[in-house]
Write a structure and sequence with these properties.
Number of strands: 18
CATH class of the largest domain: Alpha Beta
CATH superfamily of the largest domain: Spore Coat Polysaccharide Biosynthesis Protein SpsA, Chain A
Strand order of the largest sheet: 5-4-1-6-10-7-11
Structural class: alpha/beta
Largest sheet: 7 strands, mixed
Number of helices: 12
Helix content: 25-40%
Distance between the termini: 24 Å
Radius of gyration: 26 Å
Strand content: 25-35%
CATH architecture of the largest domain: Alpha-Beta Complex
CATH topology of the largest domain: Spore Coat Polysaccharide Biosynthesis Protein SpsA, Chain A
Bound molecules: magnesium ion
């Protein structure tokens, strides 16, 4: 592990009011914490994401990110500084990473470019934080009256992520134990570490009060408008037998499809179309045919897994379109059952699946009934992870 992101989600969100701590509130169809976690989990320069939480929020935590590939969360402390130190100690106990990024769960609109810039800066700096140069003129108040105008030149607002050489930050936190510093750059500064300022995306706002939630939702726009299309193709050989499984429906036939699983060529094409839309490998990578546990397995299991991969990303399946290429069996008699099964397996309404069948006019391997081919196109809607 070379770069780990520590997400601080232990706060009780007192400034926010309400029963649910702000990091677990919904923003555009997804808990705020989940958005923050996914931004780092899907970033190519981040190797692992570790959350620091409050065990009082166990149920909310599980509902928000329990299905994601995360190590067990670390229990935070009373102050933010304590929570980060406890998170660093947990990482150190498992051979700490080379670099660590600390990110507040309440900044769910963090974008990939800012993460990249902070990571890259760590190649030449002990610390680097996302920050925004101040543009407003600053006034010092005396009650409700201006006492002075403060020179804003050289002033920046500190955002997260804040990245550091792991060992340097770990030691700085040990030294600063018991203080109440409000960000990790302050801990690093206290230890004399140089920290670079990296321009942050201006939308990388911190959600502090309910108005912020509305602003963040507006910035987010449509929640699921990252639309992806994937294509899948599969072929299985026909051998003598008495049953064929297509689209999860068993059809009596004088041949069967040869394969490691139940050889449901249509569902295999569907899985590959979904994996294609996600840019996440193919069915052979997720379910190697050398693995005995998939022998004779119903392919609906693979579809459930692929759908789970979409959900893990906060997405939905918009549509799946399947074409079967075979002379026999004739599909028309089984079409309705197949459509119903496809909708059930994909967990979508029936209007979101389509099934067509064609012969190849007795030409080629499908025409000679040596095998059956299937094609599928999947359209997937993912949240825009900013
Ligand atoms: Mg196959």
């Amino acid at each position: 592990m070379t770069v780990t992101c520590l997400i601080v989600a232990a706060g009780s969100g007192e400034r926010f009011g309400g029963d649910i701590p702000k990091q677990y509130l919904d923003l555009g169809g997804m808990p705020i914490l989940r958005r923050s976690v996914l931004a780092f989990l899907h970033h190519p320069l981040i190797n692992a994401v570790h959350v620091v939480f409050n065990p009082k929020h166990e149920k909310l935590y599980q509902a928000a990110v329990g299905d994601l590939p995360l190590p067990p969360p670390t229990i935070g402390g009373i102050t933010r500084q304590d929570s980060v130190r406890l998170g660093l100690e947990a990482l150190a106990s498992q051979q700490g990473p080379r670099h660590v990024l600390i990110h507040d769960a309440a900044r769910p609109l963090i974008d990939a470019n800012t993460i990249t810039d902070v990571c890259k800066a760590l190649e030449t700096h002990a610390g680097a934080i996302a920050a925004k140069p101040l543009v407003d003129t600053l006034k010092k108040a005396d009650g409700a009256t201006i006492a002075a105008t403060i020179d804003r030149t050289h002033l920046w607002q500190a955002h997260t992520p804040q990245g550091f050489q792991f060992n340097a930050l770990y030691q700085a936190h040990q030294k600063a134990k018991g203080q109440n510093l409000t960000d990790d750059a302050a801990v690093a500064e206290a230890a004399g570490l140089p920290v670079a300022l990296i321009p942050s995306n201006p939308d990388n706002m911190k959600i502090t009060n309910p108005d912020d939630l509305g602003r963040a939702a507006r910035l987010l726009g449509q929640p699921l408008d990252d639309i992806r299309t994937g294509f899948g193709f599969d072929v299985h050989r026909l051998i003598p037998g008495n049953l064929i499984t297509l689209c999860g429906v068993e059809i009596p036939h004088n041949q069967t499809l040869e394969g490691h699983s139940d050889a449901d060529v249509a569902l295999h094409a569907v899985c590959d179309a979904i994996f294609g839309a996600l840019g996440d490998g193919d069915i052979g990578i997720h379910f190697p045919n050398t693995d005995p546990q998939w022998r004779g397995k119903a392919s609906g299991h693979f579809v459930h897994y692929a759908v789970g991969k979409v959900r893990e990303r906060g997405g939905v399946i918009a549509h799946v379109d399947v074409t079967l290429l075979c002379e026999r069996p004739k599909i028309s008699a089984h079409r309705q059952a197949m459509l119903a099964k496809l909708a059930e397996l994909l967990d979508v309404t029936p209007d979101r699946v389509a099934l067509k069948a064609t012969t190849t006019e007795r030409m080629g391997f499908t025409g000679r009934e040596e095998g059956i081919a299937a094609q599928a196109v999947a359209t997937v809607r993912l949240p825009v992870v900013r």
